């Protein structure tokens, strides 16, 4: 993972939008399972529209921020971080105790390196884990896991408790169908999504080493579709580019959405840049045909990243340090961003409350 976003060992920028249930080469329509050997359409999942709309409104509001040292982008970034040493409550809706325990055990690895704690609210008498409900009027937990929405995704950092982005009765992290059948790579998926939950973004959008995605069609490509209605190579084996492929069924993304999900995020002086980490758990595997240089692309890996990389571990420790002086340093920068955000004109009452509440524990240190 590149050390981006004030030392974040991934991109702690605008919330993840290319949330895929599996890497594109293997992703499937989660509502169906094809028979052996059947070709499934490539579905790149994204946030539900309700979440995307709220994040866009937040982006527009904070785009007016004025700070002598921080850009609007970096302010969004820094305000979404948790406070080092914070305990994050986690709750589940759906699934049984065995599944909850498996997920809790798998994702606890993050806290070996990040100075954060996960509290799953295990009842010592029954062994059951904390739960949440769609009728909740208050947040039952900082991270609310569901299994019944489409795809795998997670809000980034404390967006999960930001009432301008989500609601107490809404999930902040979804692992579709884990309660019915976990995929073979379920541990990697859980680590990836909880990586977002503690503030990390996708590595493939680093501004340090732009991935050479093949956005445009091969010259002369004749639009050709398969039985799913998805664009495929034509009879001369000329291939559709990603604008065409993702612009058609089943994703139906306009070019702006493709750009938002795949093109590099803005660079900023607020970010501490480190080496691009193509084996980061926060980077999905993309098949070679998605890159201009195919297997020679700097972003290509021969398979899916299934474990935390050394870069992931080092970055988590840097963003959420344990040394008191390091905590003071990262807290000071975050406080600056929260104060700037709280002073933006025409903030909604919910947004103002969110920033003020996030600022209080930082000021109290």
Question: Which key features would you list for this structure?
Answer:
mainly alpha, Collagenase (Catalytic Domain), five-stranded mixed beta sheet, 5% strand, disordered N terminus
Summarize the structure.
The protein has helices spanning 49-62, 72-79, 97-107, 186-197, 242-247, 255-262, 310-319, 324-342, 349-363, and strands spanning 87-93, 117-119, 143-146, 152-154, 173-175.
What does this structure look like?
The structure is a single chain. The protein has 365 residues and is mainly alpha-helical. The protein has one domain (50-213, 263-363): Collagenase (Catalytic Domain), CATH 3.40.390.10. It has nine helices and five strands. The chain has helices spanning 49-62, 72-79, 97-107, 186-197, 242-247, 255-262, 310-319, 324-342, 349-363; strands spanning 87-93, 117-119, 143-146, 152-154, 173-175. Helix 3 (97-107) links the parallel strand 1 (87-93) and strand 2 (117-119). Helix 2 (72-79) packs across helix 8 and helix 8 (324-342) runs antiparallel to helix 9 (349-363). The longest helix has 19 residues, at 324-342. It is globular, with a radius of gyration of 20 Å. It starts with 48 loop residues before the first helix and ends with a helix.
């Amino acid at each position: 993972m590149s050390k981006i976003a004030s030392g974040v060992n991934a991109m702690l920028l605008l919330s993840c939008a290319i949330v895929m249930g599996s890497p594109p080469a293997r992703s499937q329509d989660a509502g169906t399972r094809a028979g052996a050997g059947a070709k499934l359409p490539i579905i790149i999942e994204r946030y539900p529209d309700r979440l995307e709309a709220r994040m866009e409104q937040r982006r527009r509001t904070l785009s007016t921020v004025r700070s002598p040292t921080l850009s609007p982008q970096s302010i969004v970034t820094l305000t979404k971080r948790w406070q080092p040493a914070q305990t994050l409550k986690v709750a589940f809706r759906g699934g049984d105790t065995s599944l909850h325990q498996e997920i809790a055990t798998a994702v606890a690895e993050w806290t070996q390196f990040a100075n954060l704690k996960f509290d799953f609210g295990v009842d010592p008498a029954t062994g059951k884990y904390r739960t949440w409900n769609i009728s909740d009027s208050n947040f039952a937990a900082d991270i609310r896991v569901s299994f019944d929405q489409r795809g795998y995704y997670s809000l980034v950092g404390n967006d999960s408790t930001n009432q301008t982005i989500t609601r107490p009765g809404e999930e902040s992290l979804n692992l579709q169908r884990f309660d019915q059948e976990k995929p073979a790579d379920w541990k990697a998926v859980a680590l990836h999504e909880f990586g977002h939950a503690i503030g990390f973004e996708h590595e493939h959008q680093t501004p340090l080493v732009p991935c050479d995605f093949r956005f445009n069609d091969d010259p002369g490509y004749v639009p050709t579709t398969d039985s799913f209605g998805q664009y495929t190579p034509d009879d001369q084996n000329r291939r559709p580019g990603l604008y065409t492929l993702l612009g058609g069924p089943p994703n139906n993304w306009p070019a702006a959405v493709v750009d938002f999900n795949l093109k590099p995020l803005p660079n900023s002086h607020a970010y501490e840049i480190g080496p691009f980490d193509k084996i980061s758990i926060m980077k999905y595997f993309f098949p070679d045909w998605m890159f201009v240089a195919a297997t020679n692309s700097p972003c290509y890996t021969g398979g899916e990243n299934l474990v935390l990389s050394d870069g992931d571990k080092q970055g988590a420790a840097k963003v959420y340090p344990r040394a008191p002086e390091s905590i003071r340093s990262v807290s000071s920068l975050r406080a600056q961003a929260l104060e700037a955000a709280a002073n933006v004109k025409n903030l909604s009452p919910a947004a103002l409350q969110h920033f003020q509440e996030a600022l209080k524990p930082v000021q109290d240190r």
